[in-house]
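User: Run a structure prediction on this.
Assistant: Running it now.
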Amino acid sequence: MLQTPALEETTVVTINYNSIDVIANCLEPLLEAKEIIVVDNDSTDQSLAMIAERFPSVRIIATGENAGNGAGLNVGIFAAKTPYVLIIDPDAVLTPDNFQLLYQGLQDFPDAAFTAPLMFIPRHGQDLWVMGAGENHAQSHLRGA
């Protein structure tokens, strides 16, 4: 996998709560990140064992409770040691090339606090997409089939 400057300067933070069926797909494309932190919100499935076995470089922080997504993300963000943090849900997949584009957005707009991808979620005949910076900033559109 080609190492990109974005991944070299980034900690990936995700939350795990019984996410054994999806989290490997999330972690796999981002393994070249400087650091990956999985904050576990007291999972009861075998996801922690699977992560430890398949992804030994991943740092697992077990909170011992499920205080919610926001609290768990805060734990991971505060533990990060890099200039950039990628917050990603365990059921999301982001390729290194797409992450490089997000990183480039931060380089192009140094006053920006964050970037976010265009989300495309096909479900039940509807497409949800969210636009980023520029003329369409903060617009969202829901289109029926």
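The first strand starts at residue 10 and ends at 16.
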